[in-house]
Amino acid sequence: MRLELGNGKLLEVVQGDITREATDAIVNAANSSLLGGGGVDGAIHRAGGRSILEECQRIRQTRHPGGLPTGQAVATAAGRLPARYVIHTVGPVWRGGGSREAELLASAYRESIRVAEELGLSSLAFPAISTGAYGFPAEPAAEIALRTAADELRQAQHLRLIKLVVFDAAALNIYRQELERFSRSEKIERTDRSIKNEN
Ligand code: AR6
User: Fold this and answer.
1) pLDDT for 194
2) C-alpha angle 8/10/15, rounded to 5°?
3) From atom 3 of ligand 1, which residue's Cα is the shortest distance away?
4) What is the CATH number of domain 2-198?
């Protein structure tokens, strides 16, 4: 599944294991400690090797002694992974929806893309941040992921490809539905704009 955003920019949704992605960077759904955990975080550290953890420890000591705040992102090299960089971000823990979870999840995507742009990267892969241990409901999380990635990719100077990598078939179905909904709403926006332009 893909959305063509113009200027050769692509937003893709694929099912798979993000540790196998050979994009310039992959994003890690980390926690504030940056010192590893379960889920995708555990898989990335296992597959990438100890050098990623050592770089995370240095970042903790120098730039983020109190931990990486929710919604922010930092980059490390990717050790043995096929990607060149891992961009570690912290998504929000779902607390029922009234604790700025949507805003913080969008920020995790946006800040990861900002870090990738600073590094001049052309491709980036995301897992479904916050939808595992952190309990963010899958549908709104998919909508935020698609919308934020599309908006930021349109404005990006270096990035040409963003892949949203989901782990299982159920998540893929949810992304498919959200992608259809999203591209329909985009068409409506485009029509409105072209009507305005003609006036
Ligand atoms: N590739 C792609 N997606 C994956 C993979 C993989 N190899 N493994 C799991 N997922 P989670 P969170 C999916 O729990 O909710 C960790 O302990 C998974 O199916 O990894 O942001 C951290 O250290 C789910 O849809 O991240 C934090 O403490 C999605 O990745 C905490 O969990 C995210 O699930 C972060 O929780």
Assistant:
1) 40
2) 155
3) 167
4) 3.40.220.10
**Residue bearing the CA closest to ligand 1, atom 24:** 132
State in Å: Cα 26 to ligand 1 middle. Answer: 13
pLDDT confidence bin for 188, thresholds 50/70/90: low
**How do the domains of the chain map onto residue ranges?**
2-198
* Ligand 1 atom nearest 19 alpha carbon: 7
If you average pLDDT over residues 60-66, what whole number do you get?
Answer: 97
Task: Identify which has the larger pLDDT, 127 or 191.
Answer: 127
Mutational pocket test of ligand 1: of 167, 168, 178, the residue with most ligand atoms within 8 Å of the beta carbon: 167
Task: Dump pLDDT digits (tens) for 11-53.
Answer: 999 999 999 999 999 999 999 999 999 999 999 999 999 999 9
Task: Output the residue whose Cα is nearest ligand 1's atom 23.
Answer: 37
List the beta bridge partners of residue 125.
Answer: 26, 163
Mean residue pLDDT across the chain: 94
